[in-house]
């Protein structure tokens, strides 16, 4: 009997976190077993416990605790973790997700991932912080900051539709032949807007139909893993939709 392929480390995640969901999806789409999964709950401040801080001083999720560390034991940043898993897993990550070994094809995916972190994430994550996370932590976010996040998000969604999806003529971000990890990561980023009670329709589906159609296509492409990875998010979405819309 063949020995099961060993994991590359322990991935610490909270399934309410968008970069965590993206990596869980990457693992599932690769057949599972690239990593072991450990849950660390942000809303219970478990990521800030003494034990967690000693392991991961950056204090953000996800992180990968490496099986074979050369130097530091922990690797942070979801996009770097994804690249590492693709490069170190001996071809287990499908090439359409991350085309290891083809420098230019990798750079195309990287460009989309970098763009996302400085555009889409700046809008979506800041808006969710201002509307949900900040108030939960007792922080009142000034209306001007909320407005700025909304405007950054709107500009990013416009660029995504007009440029990365060429006004709907491209199926996947950047005109790649199939969904890449950039599609997975961007979808997870947008999905968090579902915690804002009705905001997804108001901010994405209504004004940006090309992006909304891509999001639906990407969700279908990632099934059955997508439904599993977003189970908790959808429960929170249902709760948010049953209370009055905040946007
Ligand atoms: N750029 C990082 C983002 C990491 C990040 O901001 N994680 C958030 C969850 S989405 C977190 O750990 N927040 C906890 C906190 O800020 O206290 C990545 O892609 O991994």
List keywords for this structure.
single chain, 247 residues, alpha+beta, Glutaredoxin, Glutathione S-transferase Yfyf (Class Pi), Chain A, domain 2, 2 domains, four-stranded mixed sheet, 54% helix, globular, binds glutathione
Quick summary:
With 247 residues, the chain is an alpha+beta fold.
Low-confidence stretches: none
Kindly give the count of domains: 2
Largest sheet geometry: 4 strands, mixed
Shape: globular
Give the amount of beta strand, in percent: 5-15%
Number of strands: 4
Tally the helices: 11
Helix content: 40-55%
Q: Any overview of this molecule?
A:
By secondary structure, this protein is an alpha+beta fold. The chain folds into 2 domains: 9-88, Glutaredoxin; 103-242, Glutathione S-transferase Yfyf (Class Pi), Chain A, domain 2 (Up-down Bundle). It is built from 11 helices and 4 strands; from the N terminus they run E-H-E-H-E-E-H-H-H-H-H-H-H-H-H. Strands 2-1-3-4 form a 4-stranded mixed β-sheet. Helix 4 packs parallel to helix 7 and helix 5 runs antiparallel to helix 6 (143-164). The longest helix has 22 residues, at 143-164. The chain is globular, with a radius of gyration of 18 Å. Bound molecules: glutathione. The site of glutathione has 11 residues, from helix 1 and helix 3.
Question: How is this fold's topology laid out?
Answer:
Elements: E1 9-13, H1 18-29, E2 36-39, H2 50-55, E3 63-66, E4 74-76, H3 78-88, H4 103-118, H5 120-136, H6 143-164, H7 181-191, H8 199-205, H9 209-222, H10 225-229, H11 231-242
Parallel strand pairs: 1-2
Antiparallel strand pairs: 1-3, 3-4
Helix pairs in contact: 1-3, 1-7, 4-7, 5-6, 7-9
């Amino acid at each position: 009997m063949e020995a099961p392929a060993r994991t590359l480390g322990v991935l610490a995640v909270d399934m309410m976190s968008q970069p965590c969901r993206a990596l869980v999806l990457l693992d599932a789409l690769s057949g599972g077993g690239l990593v072991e999964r450990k849950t660390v709950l942000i809303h219970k401040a478990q990521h800030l416990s003494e034990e967690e801080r000693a392991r991961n001083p950056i204090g953000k999720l996800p992180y990968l605790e490496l099986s074979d560390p050369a130097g530091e034991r922990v690797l942070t940043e979801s996009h770097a973790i994804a690249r590492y898993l693709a490069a170190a897993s001996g071809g287990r990550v499908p090439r359409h997700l991350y085309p290891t070994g083809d420098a230019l094809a990798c750079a195309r995916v990287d460009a989309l991932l970098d763009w996302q972190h400085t555009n889409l994430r700046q809008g979506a994550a800041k808006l969710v912080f201002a509307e949900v996370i900040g108030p939960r932590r007792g922080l009142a976010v000034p209306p001007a900051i909320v407005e700025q996040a909304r405007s950054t998000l709107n500009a990013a969604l416009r660029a995504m539709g007009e440029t990365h999806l060429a006004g709907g003529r491209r199926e996947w971000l950047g005109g790649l032949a199939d969904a890449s990890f950039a599609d997975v990561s961007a979808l997870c980023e947008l999905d968090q807007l579902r915690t804002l009670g009705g905001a997804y329709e108001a901010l994405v589906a209504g004004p940006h139909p090309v992006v909304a159609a891509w999001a639906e296509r990407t969700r279908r492409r990632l099934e059955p893993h997508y439904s599993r990875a977003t189970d908790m998010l959808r429960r929170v979405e249902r709760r948010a939709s049953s209370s009055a819309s905040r946007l």
